[in-house]
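Pasting as-is:
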Amino acid sequence: MKYEIAQNELRRRPRTWLVTGAAGFIGSHLVEKLLMLDQRVVALDNLSTGRRANIAQIQPSVSAEQWKCLYFIEGDICCLNDCRQACTNVDYVLHQASLGSIPRSIADPLLIHNNNVNGFINLVIAARDLNVKRFVYASSSAVYGDSLMLPKMETNVGKPLSPYAATKLIDEIYAGVFNRCYGLPIIGLRYFNVFGPRQDPSGTYAAVIPKWIAAILEAKEVIIYGDGETSRDFCYIANVVQANLLAAVMDSQGPTDYAYNISVGERTSLNELHYLIQTELKARIPTLQIASPRYQEFRIGDARHSQANIDNAKATLGYLPSHTIIQGLRETIDWYIRNRI
């Protein structure tokens, strides 16, 4: 498996990595994996949505020597000087810092644009000027917008349905420009509904899986927007970590200006998701009382269906998802039960 080969090569010859959004959900998992592979990691986060607790939870899973290889910078990608400091002497950038949530972007498009677009440009400028070997960034399945094609193919992007989607599409455009104008090797990863341990279940803009798990554990009502037949391609965090590492160290003969779909290639409706979550929770806590979900109106900006075609990621990156949705849910639910707040 190409992923195993890549990990062995990294252990043999450690590199220096910058992970932005390092105190967030995805970023902290990347930091953890890199430290476990004996890499040197610069972690950048302004802690606006990330949490120091996510970084602290990494420490028990790594050795004392590995932990010493982590350098945390409390800084902001919206500040070019912070980006330059973070990119100094770095081999690879894994850019995860972003403000997500379609509803949040509709409520405050300027905030989303400033972070997701202006911050992105700051970071690619710093990476260009400091000779970073490769820049890997988080894009989103939201770029497919109103396209009805299933499964989603990288070459068939629709019209964005939200400011958040627009920012991710703009980032992809700028990535291509920086590759063509400055020769910066830059790879995008279009994530499809990532979930897993450490994902924040609280707040207005929490993702559906952690929010529902927390609600059911607390005997609260689960809300489903629409009729529940809206479907998504849910992707466990370990799959995303794999894709980032493979994209960073991919063969130099592969394209260095491309955005790959990263998910599992399967579709699960919200009704099916609710059934899976309640079944897994009930199996672990038989006394748990679970109410029927309450349905509300569809939300503005939400695509009806989403499913990834991952053939290009498989062929070029060597990406092979390690977890299906049910495997990922089991690990995620076990974590939330152990870490109930």
